[in-house]
């Protein structure tokens, strides 16, 4: 403790302390520092030990009443937070300086050295230095409580698609992983016909809803349920539910459009094939190569369903093919595909090779098919389909067979596939045994469609070394090494050999 006084002049003399008689320079209290210290303690009323709450999960400190802030040890943010804890008791003194004293990082103690001033006894200004100890107590914050509980959620996004195949969901999963939208979710639960995303705040759920509306054709519906209501502060606690329904059409589905919709899309045929589902449904007319895109709003105004599921596709063998060079489109026709070639083919079912039954059809796969190739298609001639628009069509305009995709040997493709995809960690409930086959279908679609894999992160699979041979190549499409990413892991930091050396 010391005085804050003006510098003494040459003419100034000393006086005696009124208590102990020691000669001292004149001051308003007429007392020496030792005697003043026995009479006055200017740090009185300021707590010397204070409690600070700390969340070990997210490493944040509680700033009363409910704010949790990130602060490093001995940082300006932590200094401000500690000073706020004792601010109310320092209204009668003036803070001159504050700083941290070193303590062990794991001691659960933060020591702060404070310098304060106060006017006492007839205007004398005293300055004192003392230490305040802050004791760190562990307390889990609300956000970490929700994460640990897993069921304590404020909003859920229910994504549904009423289809047998899950190709759209697999594509959507890769988009979510690429944009890291799954990181805010408390829990991800996969159920029949969809996935549920649970969030701690409505804002995170709304962000997922906005992403889905920009990524896949869908429609949404919002509802909320009142959990509690505080009548004193007039605050409401709701649980929100966002229901997202994706259009029930997947890649490689055969659909029948309404006459009105087909006409608005450029007078294309009613029977079309879905070649891709992104933010819109990409359709192609197998008779004319006309292409069209149907967005979510257009679909829900003029809905159409898939005429077949992948299990109903049959395998055909190409008996004869003839490329159609000059195809003239009618009046008002829309765009034609430049990536496909129109052809007339004669095909025969592989299950009917002992008969002479053959089928004639047009296809958009003329650039891929040769005589003897296997191709998957849907047999309209021998199927009983109950569809509103197909039943009203002229039977002469309904094709006997619609070819979907060229067929390759799946076992060979799996053997030489040297890449992989990431998957979201989620709870699986009521899973179908057909999921593995559907996932392999999605991987093959990525190999065949360059545009589809532009939005997907593909990683090189170091565990698989493909065996190359000339006789093993059946012309199946593949993904080049240029399109693959290296997957990062913790072992990459030290390397496998370094890890072994460290454990010796």
Task: Kindly give the count of domains.
Answer: 4
State the distance separating the first and last CA atoms.
58 Å
The number of distinct helices, counting runs of at least 4 residues, comes to 11
Helix-and-strand structural type:
alpha+beta
Residue share in helix: 10-25%
Percent strand equals: 25-35%
Task: Output mean pLDDT.
Answer: 81
What is Rg? 38 Å
**Shape by Cα distribution:** elongated
Q: What does this 3D model show about the protein?
A:
- With 504 residues, the chain is an alpha+beta fold.
- The chain folds into four domains: 43-142, Nuclear Transport Factor 2, Chain: A, CATH 3.10.450; 150-246, no CATH class; 253-407, no CATH class; 414-468 and 476-487, no CATH class.
- 19% of the residues lie in helices and 32% in strands.
- It has eleven helices and 27 strands.
- The strands form six sheets. Strands 1, 4, 5, 6, 7, 8 and 9 form a seven-stranded mixed sheet that branches.
- The protein is elongated.
- Mean pLDDT is 81; it is low at 489-504.
